[in-house]
Amino acid sequence: MLSLPELGQLFESYRREHAFKGTVAELYAPAQYLMDLGGKRIRPLSTLVAHQLYHDEVDLALPAALAMEVFHNFSLMHDDIMDESPLRRDHPTVHMQYDLNAAILSGDWMLIHSYELLAGYDASKALPMIKLLNKTGAEVCEGQQRDINFESTMNVSEAAYIQMIQDKTAVLLGASLQMGGYTAGAPASDLDALYLTGINAGISFQLMDDYLDAFSPTSGKIKGGDVLQNKKTILFIHCLQEANETDRNQLLNWYQIQTPSDEKISGVLHLFEKYQVPSFVKNMVQSYGQKSMKALDSISVAQSRKTNLETLLTELLNRNK
Predict the structure, then answer these.
(1) What is the pLDDT along the chain (321 residues), one digit of tens a residue?
(2) What is the Cα–Cα distance from 204 to 208, expressed in whole angstroms?
(3) Which domain holds residue 132?
(4) Whole-prediction pTM value?
């Protein structure tokens, strides 16, 4: 059984061997540019690790792993366009490096190519995998729209926020794990457990991301980026719910200000701490992490085969940056 670093190396070799190219180079170059920027490769690793729960040989899962990474990067490319982001992974975003039309069209092709990769499996595997990507893609779009909707309202419930991050972030991790189950021929009960493992880990990951944006212990990290952008994260939502009327109005006033300032960051973070928001969010992170591990425990393979997935989840759930 390959280790996580070995699986990562295997995927990178496969990705490079299947570099995007064709007669119209201008279509493929932007997509290849984004894929070459790197990243943690959490989703393809999840697919390979899930497949390896059942089989040591993982070559069969490589096209599905690449499909999930291509789909993920397609969503990033279009997110960057909508957010007008200048940078991705410390490099110019695709629409800045090339142009807007190139980014839209190349992103469209990436979506198509992710399906093309899954269609290469035999029909008994390809059909449920394509249906899963259909469902996941629709949910990611719904999550993005929910996030956009939140920009124009202060009235966001905790439940609505959890649904948004589940759709926008967690479903892709759940689907990546389930894809590995499909390629391996896992039983239906395990397919469900793999999906729940990813869903809960993804929610926990995003909640921790929200927490670290405001309270990262890592020196040198700029705190309060979400506050400066007036993002309605779980910290803002819970603080608004718990605050007295005076502090609630102060928090709302801070979130009306568009100009970045240290005073705004310190003022908002003070309110978060006053209402014990950090401990509340960390408890949520832990709760969803425990749900993820509980789902993993229910998968019907020997504990020794779960080592890589446990390690991957631990790295996701116990980070400090």
Answers:
(1) 999 999 999 999 999 999 999 999 999 999 999 999 999 999 999 999 999 999 999 999 999 999 999 999 999 999 999 999 999 999 999 999 999 999 999 999 999 999 999 999 999 999 999 999 999 999 999 999 999 999 999 999 999 999 999 999 999 999 999 999 999 999 999 999 999 999 999 999 999 999 999 998 764 456 888 999 999 999 999 999 999 999 999 999 999 988 888 999 999 999 999 999 999 999 999 999 999 999 999 999 999 999 999 999 999 998 877
(2) 6
(3) 4-317
(4) 0.96
Torsion over CA of 301, 303, 304 and 305, rounded to 10 degrees?
Answer: 40
Contact 60, 183 (CB under 8 A): yes
CATH classification at residue 270:
1.10.600.10
d(CA 260, CA 265): 8
The closest of 212, 167, 224, 177 to 318, measured between CA atoms, is 212
Question: For the chain, what is the domain count?
Answer: 1
Structure tokens at 149: 């909707």
